[in-house]
Design a protein that fits this description.
Elements: E1 3-12, E2 21-31, E3 36-40, H1 47-54, E4 62-67, E5 70-71, H2 77-87, E6 88-91, H3 103-108, H4 117-133, H5 149-161, E7 167-171, H6 179-196, E8 199-203, H7 207-211, E9 215-220, E10 223-226
Parallel strand pairs: 3-8, 3-9, 6-7, 7-8
Antiparallel strand pairs: 1-2, 1-4, 4-5, 9-10
């Protein structure tokens, strides 16, 4: 087992002034190494909040997150930074590439936290391999403003994969893409899952993308319900 969530609860607002909104309610969930899972649900149901808690970008009000038998809740801030950098890859609806940096520089940003110079050197080779794999190596010296949205999203995927994470969290990764680029990015995600053994957790409104994952869940009333 790679990931285990036990009775995760999260709310926003204040109960005393009646502004409290419960988004996750004693939610439990498990993922094995190499699985691909899609989470569906209406806007505002808590899907992004759930991904943020799994990726240690946010904290639950109660409950535990365990990653490879290690309780993430117990990690100090510096340990959490290292965990996010080396174990988790993030892809969002918008690529968030730095406009003043070239594509290759953007891709290598997560490697700046690696202290070992030899490992950092190896990251350049990995960046080249991944950029060639997603078909944009020839654009490596371009700024994001000179690239299409689909190309930028592919670069964001490479950036998420540069440190060889065990788990990729993708929050509406195809939401801003047209049909052709949606198909390209979906194919890349599936290739990483099937051929590299990457564990993949995707939040999406796309029924097409969800249908190609091994398992699908719907987040409803604060809990995950298995589909099918």
């Amino acid at each position: 087992m790679l990931l285990k969530l036990e009775e995760i609860s999260k709310s926003f607002g204040n109960r005393e002034d009646a502004t409290e909104r419960i988004v996750l309610k004693e939610l439990s969930f498990e993922m094995d190494e190499g699985e691909s899972v899609a989470i569906l649900g209406p806007s505002g149901s808590g899907k992004t909040t759930l991904l943020n808690i799994i990726g240690s970008l946010d904290y639950p009000d109660s409950g535990t997150v365990t990653f490879r038998d290690r309780r993430i809740n117990d990690l100090a801030e510096q340990e959490l930074d290292h965990f996010r950098n080396r174990q988790i890859g993030f892809v969002f609806q918008f690529h968030h590439l730095l406009p003043q940096c070239t594509l290759l520089e953007n891709v290598l940003i997560p490697t700046l936290m690696i202290r070992d110079k030899g490992a950092r050197s190896g990251s350049v080779n990995r960046a080249e391999q991944l950029l060639k794999r997603v078909g944009i190596w020839e654009h490596r010296d371009k700024l994001p403003g000179r690239m299409s949205g689909g190309e930028c999203q592919r670069a964001a995927l490479v950036r998420a994969m540069i440190n060889e994470p065990a788990l990729l969290l993708a929050d509406e990764p195809t939401g801003a893409l047209d049909g052709e680029n949606l198909e390209i990015l979906t194919g890349l995600l599936l290739d990483l899952n099937r051929n590299d053994g990457l564990t993949l957790l995707v939040v999406t409104h796309s029924q097409e993308l969800a249908a190609r994952m091994q398992k699908t869940f719907t987040l409803r009333n604060g809990k995950l319900e298995r589909n099918g």
